[in-house]
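Action item from last meeting closed. Structure (159 res):
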C-alpha cells in the first residue's frame, strides 16, 4: 500500500527517530478534507434504507467542519433530509479514507449561495450565482469524523 498523504506537517519523530503518527484532531480532519472534493453523501430513505449519491463540496470546507453541497430543489436527498437530517459523507484519496457523520440543513439564502458558488457549479445549473432559481445549498455540520490510513482515529467534531 502506498503511503497515505494525510495533511502535511503531521508526522512526528520521537527521540530515537521513530516516526509516530499523532491521533487525528479537528485541524487534521479539516486539512485532510481540503484535498478531497468528491464524496458519497448517504441519507436515510423513508423505509430506513440508505441512499447514497456522489456530491462535490467544490473544494471548500471551513475549519469548523461545515461543508456545503449544491442541489436542485426536487431531489430524493432533500426529501430524505427533510425526514431525517442525519447524513454521512464518505471521502477517499490515495490510501486515506474519511467518514464524516453530521446533520444536514437546506438553505436558499442568496448570500450563502454566492459565498460558496464556484464557476464549476454553472455546468450543473446552466447559470451563475446571480440567477438562483432552482438552486439550494445543503450545509452539513460534522458531529464526528473517522479517519483511516496512517493517522487513524475518531474525532468528536461537536465541540
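Sequence:
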Amino acid at each position: 500500500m502506498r503511503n497515505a498523504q494525510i495533511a502535511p506537517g503531521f508526522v512526528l519523530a520521537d527521540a530515537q527517530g521513530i516516526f509516530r503518527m499523532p491521533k487525528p484532531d479537528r485541524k487534521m480532519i479539516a486539512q485532510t478534507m481540503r484535498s478531497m472534493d468528491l464524496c458519497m453523501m448517504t441519507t436515510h430513505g423513508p423505509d430506513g434504507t440508505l441512499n447514497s449519491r456522489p456530491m462535490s463540496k467544490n473544494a471548500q470546507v471551513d475549519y469548523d467542519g461545515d461543508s456545503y453541497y449544491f442541489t436542485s430543489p426536487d431531489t430524493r436527498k432533500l426529501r430524505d433530509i427533510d425526514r431525517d437530517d442525519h447524513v454521512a459523507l464518505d471521502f477517499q484519496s490515495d490510501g486515506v479514507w474519511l467518514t464524516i457523520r453530521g446533520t444536514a440543513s437546506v438553505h436558499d439564502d442568496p448570500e450563502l449561495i454566492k459565498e460558496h458558488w464556484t464557476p464549476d457549479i454553472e455546468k450543473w445549473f446552466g447559470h451563475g450565482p446571480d440567477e438562483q432559481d432552482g438552486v439550494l445549498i445543503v450545509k452539513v455540520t460534522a458531529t464526528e469524523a473517522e479517519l483511516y490510513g496512517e493517522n487513524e482515529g475518531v474525532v468528536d467534531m461537536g465541540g
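Note appended to the action item: Residues 26-34 form the longest helix (9 residues).
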